[in-house]
Amino acid sequence: TEHLQAMGSTGGSLLDTKPFKVVRDATEKPLTSIWYRSQKLAKSWETSPEDVEQAKKFATAVAEANELTPEATAEAEKLVGELLEGYASRMPEAGPWLAYSYLTDTGYAGEEWNWAKNIPWNGSMPLSLDHFGGDPFAVIALRTKTDPEQFEAFVNWADSLRKFVSNTIAATGDDDVQEGFKTFDEQIVPLGEEFTNTLREKFLPALKNGQFGLVLDGKATTTKLQAALPSSAEPLPLIEPAIVLSLDDDELFREGLSDIFALYDKLLAAIREIDEDAIPSEYRIPDPEEQKVDGGNIWTFTLPESGLDEQIQLSIGVGKNAAVFSFTPKQVGRILAGSPLQLQGDFSANLAAVAILDWVAFADLIEPWATYVIRCGGIQQEQGTLDPSETIGPDSETEEVTDALDQLATIFDVFRCLKSATAKTSIEDDITVTRWQNRIEDLPAK
Fold first, then answer.
1. Residues 360, 281: contact at Cβ < 8 Å?
2. Are strands 138-143 and 221-222 parallel, antiparallel or unpaired?
3. What whole-number distance in Å separates Cα of residue 78 and Cα of residue 75?
4. Which of 48, 156, 268, 308 has its CA 20 to 30 A from that of 326?
C-alpha cells in the first residue's frame, strides 16, 4: 500500500501541473468530466526507439530460421532497419493529453488538448468548405501535412525489398520459382513503376494541399434497394457516402485518372500473358459514361450484375477545385456545383479538422429503414420467406409488428433529443486543440 500512502504527499496537487492549467482556466464553467493521460503513460504504450530495435532482432531471427547466408541476413537487417528508422523519424512524439466537458444552456461542450509532437495535422490555414453539397447530415473535413520525401523513401525501400527477394530468396528456389520471379520482374514490375510515376508526377502535385473530406448525405430515395428484396410502399432514403479531395491542379488529376485506367488494361493483358486462363479473354472494365455538369465532369460505371437500384453507380467527378468519389452521380453533381456548407458557428479560423453531424437528419434517414426491416421480419416470421415481387407497407403489418413500430417511434423521439454535434481542431502553439459541442432538447413532459 506504499503507493496509496504516498498519494497527496509527493509534490503537490495534480491540479497544479502544467497540463491542468487548461482546467484551472475553465473553473468558471460547470464542469461535468475531466480526463487526463500523462506523458509517461503515453510513452509506455506508444512506439518507441526500443520497439524499433526489437523489430530488427525479429528480422534477424526470421532470416536465420530461413537459413539465409550471413550476407543475406545482413541485407535483411538493413532493409528492416531503414524502414523502421524512417517510420521512427516521423512517428508522433508522446505528450500529455487532457480533456474536459461542461454543461451549456443547450447541451454539453468540451475541449481536448494534446501536447504530442510530430503529428500529421496541418492547421496553418482555413479549411475550404465550399464543395460538400450544401446541407449533408454529416461531414468530416481535414488537412494533413504532405511529405513527398516520405513517399520517395518508401518507394526506394519497396524497390530494395523487391530486389532482395528476387536476388536472395528466389535464387534458392527451384526452376519454377525462379521462372515465376523472372516473369513477375518482366511483366508486373514495369507496371508498378508506371503506377509510381503517376502518383509522383500527377496525383501528389494535384493533391499537395492535403485537404480531403467525407460527406454523408441522404437526398436520394428508393423503394427497392436490391432485386432480391421486396419493394417498400414508402420511400426509403439512400445513405450517400462521398469522398472529396481538394485539388491544386485539376488537369494533372484528370491525367492521373486516365493513366490509372490505361494501366489497368495493361495489367489485365499482363496477367493473361502469364496465365491465359486467369481472366476471360473477353473481360474488360467497361468504359464509363461521361456527362458534363455545373462545376465539372462526371464519369459513372454502372453495376448491372449487382441488382442494385439503378441510381447506385460508381461515380467520379472532377471540377476545378475538387474531385469527388461517390455511389450516386447526383450527389457528385451537387458537390461539384460548389454549395457551401450551411453551418452554425464560426469556422473561418485556421483549422486542421472539422466534424459536423445533424443528428435529427440522421434519425430521419434511419427510421424508415428500421420500419421496413421490422415489417419484413413480421412477414418472414408469418410466411417463412420474402417474395421479391411483394410490396411491403402498413397494409402488411400484423398486430405484433404494429406494436413494435409504436415502440420504435418512441425510441426515435428520444433519439432526436440530440439535435446536432460539431467539433473543430486547431493547432495552437504546437498544441492540438479540439473544441466540441452538442445541442440537446429534452422531450416535453406528459
1. no
2. unpaired
3. 5
4. 268
